[in-house]
Amino acid sequence: MTVYLDHNATTPIDPRVLAAMQPYLAAAYGNASSLHRLGRLSRAAVETAREQVAGLLGAHPAEVVFTSGGTEANNAALKGVAAMRRGGRVLVSAIEHASVLETAQALGPFGWECSALPMGEDGRVSPAGLEAGLTADTALVSVMWANNETGVIHDLPRLATQAKEAGALFHTDAVQAAGKIPVDFAASGADLLSISGHKIYGPKGVGALLVRRGLTLEPLVHGSTQEKGRRGGTENVAGIVGLGAAAELAAGEMQGRDARQRVLRQRMEVQLAERLPEAVVFAAGTERLSNTVFFAIPGVDGETLLMQLDRRGFALSAGAACAGAREPSHVLRAMGVPHDLARGAVRLSLGHDNTEAHVDAFVEALVVECNALRERAWM
Predict the structure, then answer these.
(1) Which active-site residues does the annotation give?
(2) 0.85 exceeded by the pTM?
(3) 229 and 86, same structural domain?
(4) Shortest CA distance to 321 belongs to which of 313, 312, 330?
(5) What is the spatial distance between Cα 93 and Cα 29, in angstroms, rounded to a whole number?
(6) Tens digits of per-residue pLDDT, 212-221?
(7) What's 204's domain CATH number?
């Protein structure tokens, strides 16, 4: 049996979410744009989900645009802003997901300049760093709410306020934050916010982009009038229902999930310090998501360790992987972590189904494998 410790990559669908989706995968199959009874049933389900997502995120339902996931939402935000203006400058943090970093770079041929905001050793964009990066031609700033590797949480309201005072729009990738910590779109000051269903025990293939009321974006997907003309294509009703159900569950259970995971993370990090005192937990002194531990053992290759732990039945992630030779995490590079240490990075991300027994068994397996890998290295 596999002990799943990779919840920042994806989460298992909650049985209650699956149950909510089931009717829309079979009997309630109407197109949400149709005017007959089956179509109206689907439309009502989509609008209920819109209210549920808005409820989790402190938004107005009219601000919720359903997408195929976080990657599309990030693309729609950056490209949608860029298409409405004749060039400018976009600032993104150096630790963003590839769907933000690569999208920002792809705007170059259209007259946009992309600049990366530097990171401190704590893995955060500082207000001073943002202030130094803002210029008169900065039209858009994108900083993720919480990092998917380190779990570091940014002070979004402060950063968004700075960007707005400089005349720039502000986007945040909240894929890792939503459902784990309180996210209030209205209070944050952000103009655009992205989420994904499969990070909050919902289905894959569905997400949302929040668009502040009054802000007009060029659609990423043209072709029809769905989502009030903001995203063409027949709605994925079952997926949207699943996202809505997952959002509602997260809103009601967030505090309890956070408390349990915080206890487990503390248990894991205490044992790590006792059994492998040389271990380095990245951004340990920074405010982080309660479920995330990103660490390295000096002298132990992260990818090799990951494979050995997988053989023992523990599923977790290395910092980053590419075809061929694995490169160190771009997040750790931006934080100034030495190359050799960064290559050893392993990320553990807890979920609400993990237990103390899982943590204890993982640490025991980790110690055994680290010792074995070191012995081999000396042979």
Answers:
(1) 322
(2) yes
(3) yes
(4) 330
(5) 42
(6) 999 999 999 9
(7) 3.40.640.10
